[in-house]
Design goal:
- The protein is an all-beta fold.
- Strand 4 and strand 5 form a beta hairpin.
- About 30% of the residues are buried.
Length: about 120
């Protein structure tokens, strides 16, 4: 089992910044990849960014490239998402995800609300 706890969401004006954090605990050694997903009302959950455990290879959704940065602090077992130049369309609940071996099992955090006002 892996437990994920997110923090850092809130209300910000368009053009502002927020940093989300996700602290992992439990069977951390089984994590192969971590990432951030988001879900806006009426929409499906979508990938925002991911980072692999070994090579720290990153992947971003086109909509956030150049504005968001995913990173991790292995000593603190914490994943971050730095969000700059926020837009109203970034408004959503943001979820932390950890994918583990075997079988690429997914764990999810409880979600944190990000609201960007125009």
């Amino acid at each position: 089992q892996v437990q994920l706890v997110e923090s850092g969401g809130g209300l910000v004006q368009a053009g502002g910044s927020l940093r989300l954090s996700c602290t992992a605990s439990g069977l951390i050694f089984r994590i192969t990849r971590m990432g951030w997903y988001r879900q806006a009302p009426g929409n499906q959950r979508e990938l925002v960014a991911t980072i692999t455990s070994g090579s720290s290879r990153t992947n971003y959704a086109d909509s956030v490239k150049g504005r968001f940065t995913i990173s991790r602090d292995n000593a603190k077992n914490t994943l971050y998402l730095q969000m700059n130049s926020l837009k109203p369309e970034d408004t959503a609940v943001y979820y932390c995800n950890a994918q583990t071996y075997p079988a690429n099992y997914d764990y999810w955090g409880q979600g944190t609300q990000v609201t960007v006002s125009a």
